[in-house]
Amino acid sequence: MSISASYEVASRLESSIESIIRGQSRTIRRILACMASGGHVLLEDVPGTGKTTLAKALAQSISGATFKRVQFTPDLLPSDILGLSIFDPQTSSFRFQPGPIFTDILLADEINRASPRVQSALLESMAERQATIDGKAYDFQGIFFVIATQNPVEFRGTYPLPEAQMDRFSMQCGLGYVTEDEEVGILADQQQEHPVNKMSASISHDEMIALMDAVKKVRFSEELQHYAVKIVAATRHRSEVKLAASPRASLALMKTAQALSIFEGRDFVLPETIQELAADVIAHRLVLSPDAKYAGVTGRSIVAELLETIPVPV
Amino acid sequence: MKHIFVSLLFALQGLATAADTPEVAAMDFAVAIKTSTIAGAQEKLCALNPDTGEAKKAKIVGAWSGLRDTMITAEFELADQKTDGDFAAVILKQADPENANNFRIYGFGIVKREGAWLAAPVPSSFENSIVSYEADSLARRKTIQQWMLGREVSLREEMQKNAATNLLEKMRQFMPAEKLKTIGGKELLESFVKACREKNQNAALAHLGGYSSDEVDGWVRITRRLTKAFTGDEINKWPWRLLADPSTITCIGAAEEVAGEIAVHMLALHQNGITEEPEYMIFAVKHDEQGLARLELPYVFVNDDVTEGDDGAVMDSSEEDQVKLYEQLRAEARAKLSQIDVSKSDALASGIEKTIQSGDFASYWGMNSIASDEGKLDDLPMIVDLWQKLQANSSTSLFGRVGFLEVNDQALLVIQCYNSTNADGITLKKLWLKREKNVWSLEEDIPELPEEKITAWLEENKQKWTSEWADSLVGGSVRVGGLANSTPDGTAVRDVFTKWSAALKEKNLPQMMSQCATFNDSASVMKMLRNLSGELQYGSPSMEILDVATAGRWGAVCVKQTPKSKSPPQYPLYVFVGTDQGPRLLAQMDFKLDAGRSREFLNQQSFQNLSKTLPEAAVSELRSLYDKFSSLVKEKSAAK
Fold it and tell me: For helices A25-36 and A205-215, what crossing angle results, to 10°?
């Protein structure tokens, strides 16, 4: 698929989602770019900001795309996510019954409520795009985009995601609250029925796969490669950072920037695209020192400072 | 933290205890990974090369942790092994006897050092072990490692292939298919409940269509729910506990056929049921084309989103059939009781006291349901409610009778209670009994017109009962007036500690008490109970005895406790004294070694308190043990 055709597909998908979710256009675009780049997104947000609606809208916008939602709870087992072998009395043999992870779009709701064992099962499968069950590896076909949510309000009874696992997510962002006007619009939209229920597909499954392939063709110049790496590497020299971003962050930054460029109708990446994505891609991977945390430093503030100090290639 | 563990272990390489054969080395290593901390495993059983870099050591620790997460509870068995000179590859398996498809395969490289075998640190490889790097040695290791990796795969495939055969065999052992052609509905459900109580998933499957040649409706969902229940903690929760908990009081009615459909009815009363009444369930009995019977589980067992209060079906006392079944439930519960003369208040009070102490819900409910002979079904939830209030965390509570008085048709049983989750002291539980038609029974609350003689008696004794520990409550421990003039036997001390720690593992406070001694004053008893409560709530199940020693009138056991979390290990010192029943743990003494300055201050405070009541010589004897073990623990900590 050419870049222009990809842009057309991306635009259709974006318009479709924006018709359902109000007032979040930049965030939606970044999340769609994350999906197109083959990554996964972690949404940290308060309840009721449209996380589930976004995931559903995504699935319904792509014809033939499957959608599964898993509510993470403390009693969840890895087999509840991955699937398990079930005895079939008629054939007197075991057959694999895939779990909800075998889907195009998976909403992993409140991921930090499940035990670390279950989190690992999901996160490792996300990274490898395959699940190993009973010693056998099963590949995930198709889109495979995970939207995981964390609820920042409640800390009791949660298992924070292990720091080392956070970088399985290409991006972390929040939808946030909408403006009053936009909220009024939401009320009007949903007076009769939720618009997501009557939503129709705007792109095909094949088009989405082609879009994902096209992302790799977007030009990412050598200067920008250095720029991206410099931003990521700079986190390793900050005294406030206990655990800095790894090359995985540079890769994610490149891929999501390539994808976002398609959504903006370009076949090349601009430094501004990297700057727009840097905080979403890098901040959640940084583990800050306790002193820095108490001083109110955040991963996002560090990335913002780095963007101001690192020279932009011209 | 990983680095700290590894460094400590690395420093303790000299303590390695190698095995006589590769198989034993692999078994020991696997068991150590499964049961102990990672550190514990390396300390004793690992041939880690001292030149291994820190980053790799951390990775190795991570690999062990990952391996431990995948291990199941079954025993390790040898699956295959190969030896070539100083190298061996051992493949172990774990096979869940209750679930044929739940098995694991693990490969371990084993190396011979100074005539004994030790496991290589990295599973399924010889990496980072103390081995020669000469060409011949390398080649032989490569060959044996390749064999190990290939064999792991082939063994896994074999086990997967055999899983179905094993499952059918295990199903047959419990419930042969032929029997399902003739079995009655009631017998089928009874057998299913037995399988659930034995936590036997294979057997449970046999009752639900595991042999069926027909397509069983919702089979995937049934087996998924069953697997989840039997492999996780759901089996101990509602609704599965109604079938699987042996303490559930159940009653199964005869199978009934209505409009060609066969159904079996069941009542189940669980002691922690939020409805406090028996739950009513209907199991449909189906037959496939070959005439094999199978049960259809009620809705609550096969659906994910069910909640106890909303979806549980409480017995309907307006339904004649259910009331009939309920009468059967009571009759069966009573039949299991030893004879209790309910025409005598003290007999009922003693019975209640005994069941509360032993946590025997079925007997408690049985004896109290006698009173409902007069049709007072409404009283029965109250009996369960009372039990739940009394038995909150039953195994970690103590109960002891302090008083009983009968006046006319009323009686009051006063029980002193100590709950380890609420370690504030004594609470009194007052159980009122009433007599109607010459039958004594429990009252829900204080009678409207309590007998004045009883209330006066209660008022008179209340203060004493809430301030003095009754022998009936703490009598399990040995009360000592002072120190015996003899040295406790070291072996006996170790034995008592082992029994005590086993009781701690089971969270059985009365059992723990039976291995303890306390000085004969109220403050000492309180301190003992508080410390035992602390052990129950915060103690670690993983305890390793570092050493046992005796001095003068004392014995002491120094222990390494490894918390489940990644917190550093703790080193408590348990103090023992001699009693006429042998050495006992003086649980009121609470020493933690090498645990920081504040803790050291508290330790010294304990010595000062002891000095107030014991001769200085006795305190010095204990201090000598304390100093000895403090040095030992410091040495260990320094090795970090």
Answer: 80
Pick the residue of B2, B154, B224, B235 with the most A CBs within 10 A to test the interface with A by mutation.
B224
**Quick one: pLDDT at residue B31?**
85
**Cβ B211–A89 below 8 Å, yes or no?**
yes
**At A128, is the secondary structure helix, strand, or coil?**
helix
**pLDDT-flagged residues of chain B (< 70):** 1-18, 35-44, 338, 370-379, 392-396, 422-424, 540-541, 564-567, 637-640
Domain of B427?
341-473
| Residue of B602, B598, B607, B599 lying closest to B626 (CA atoms) | B607
pTM: 0.75
Q: Is B565 helix (H, G, I), strand (E, B) or coil?
A: coil
Chain B hits for A80, CB-CB cut-off 8 Å, are 228
Does any CB of chain B come closer than 8 Å to the CB of residue A86?
yes
Q: Which residues contact A117 (CB under 8 A, 6 or more apart)?
A: A78, B69
Residues B437 and B308 in one domain: no
Q: Is the CB of residue B12 less than 8 Å from the CB of residue B48?
A: no
Q: Could you tell me which residues come within 8 angstroms of residue B307 by beta carbon, excluding any fewer than 6 positions away?
A: none
Span B385-438, pLDDT tens digits: 888 888 765 556 788 899 999 999 999 999 988 877 766 677 888 999 999 888
B46 plus B62 within the same structural domain: yes
Contact (CB<8Å) B234/A75: yes
Mutate to test the interface with B, among A73, A76, A84, A109 (most CBs of B within 10 A): A84
* Closest in A87, A120, A134 to B223, CB measured: A87
Whether A89 and B69 lie within 8 Å, measured CB to CB:
no
The interface residues of chain A toward chain B in range 101-160, judged by CB-CB distance below 8 A, are 117, 120, 134-135
Residue B15: what pLDDT?
A: 38
Question: What is the number of structural domains in chain B?
Answer: 4
The residue among B502, B584, B532 whose CA lies nearest residue B419 is: B532
Q: How far is B622 from chain A (nearest CA, A)?
A: 42
Are A135 and B160 an interchain contact pair (Cβ–Cβ within 8 Å)?
Answer: yes
Q: Is residue B64 part of a domain?
A: yes
Domain assignment of residue B137, yes or no: yes
Among A86, A90, A120, beta carbon nearest to B223? A86
Please indicate, yes or no, whether residues B250 and B276 belong to a single structural domain of this protein: yes
- Give the C-alpha separation, A81 to A102, whole Å: 9
Calculate the average pLDDT of chain A.
88
Q: Residue B622 maps to which CATH number?
A: 3.10.450
A296, pLDDT greater than 80: yes
For the record, the structure tokens of B386 come out as 């009372």
Kindly identify which residue of chain A lies nearest to residue B215, measuring between CA atoms.
A90
How far, in Å, CA of A90 to CA of A186, rounded? 51
Of A77, A90, A120, which has the smallest distance from its Cβ to B232's Cβ?
A77
Task: Please tell me which of the candidates A77, A85, A117 has its beta carbon nearest to residue B69.
Answer: A117
Cis omega (within 30 of 0) for bond into B239: yes
The CATH number of whichever domain residue B357 belongs to comes to: 3.10.450.50
**3-state secondary structure at position B640:** coil
Tens-digit pLDDT profile for residues B90-102: 999 998 887 778 8
Query: Considering CB atoms only, which of A79, A84, A89 is closest to B210?
Result: A89
- Asked whether residue B333 is assigned to any structural domain, the reply reads no
Whether A21 has a pLDDT exceeding 90, the answer reads no
Asked if residue B219 and residue B153 are part of one domain, the reply reads no
CB A234 within 8 A of CB A306: yes
Residues A131-187: tens digit of each pLDDT = 888 777 888 888 999 999 887 655 556 677 877 678 899 999 887 777 777 777 767
Pick the residue from chain A with its C-alpha nearest to B214. Answer: A90
The domains of chain A, with CATH numbers, are 1-177+203-215 (3.40.50.300), 218-314 (1.10.8.80)
Question: B435 in a domain, yes or no?
Answer: yes
ipTM above 0.90, yes or no: no
